[in-house]
Amino acid sequence: MISIGGLTGFWIIALLTLHGADVAETHRNSLNEPDVPFPPARPTAQNLAAICYYSQGRPRYLASFFLKSGASFFRRCGDAINRLESWYSLCCSGQVAVQSYQILCCTQQAWKQALSQFCMEEYATMTLPYECCAKTGEVRWKCFDSQLPNPNYEPIPGYTAPLVPQEPGFIFNANAC
């Protein structure tokens, strides 16, 4: 027979463990907004290894991470990050970029396609679009690559990304490399 004291102790330990665990949890800033590090850095030869190697150590943003209302911008940012990480995994695993020299080119194409889709989603709302979306061509990409919260794609210590479905829509053009 299990004693009440033993059962109570078990639940206290279980709750403390869950409370202290960092299981795909977003953090909030002083305005109670989700902390979504955006925009992502442009893939380069310097950060490519981290993009591929530390993928599971960078946040993913599930719908449950956001407030039900008032967080649509942050949700779009999170969706763009999720999409990009999904497409990076295709590039890094060799599923679309067959030659090793194509991996950087593939990740750069994924970055541009994911941010282009983010901008399309921004213009589909009734709010002002993200400032970089108003620009075109290389000026847009330089804008996105200028205010980087994590330029080296460093992982969060102790964090493991939740499983998220593969995002459809990425088209790698090997001829553009």
Outline of this structure?
The chain has helices spanning 4-20, 48-53, 72-93, 102-123, 137-144. It is mainly alpha-helical and 177 residues long.
Please tell me the overall pLDDT.
81
What is the string of helix and strand elements? HHHHH
> What is Rg?
19 Å
Poorly predicted ranges (pLDDT <50, ≥5 residues)? 5-31
Largest sheet geometry: none
Alpha carbon gap, first and last residue: 68 Å
**Number of beta-strand segments:** 0
Structural class: mainly alpha
Shape: globular
What's the number of helices? 5
Strand content: under 5%
Q: Which percent bin holds the helix content?
A: 40-55%
Give the topology.
Elements lengths: L3 H17 L27 H6 L18 H22 L8 H22 L13 H8 L33
Helix pairs in contact: 3-4
Task: Provide a descriptive summary of the structure in words.
- With 177 residues, the protein is mainly α.
- Helices cover 42% and strands 0% of the residues.
- The protein has helices at 4-20, 48-53, 72-93, 102-123, 137-144.
- It is globular and about 45 Å long.
What brief labels describe this structure?
mainly alpha; 177 residues; globular; 5 helices
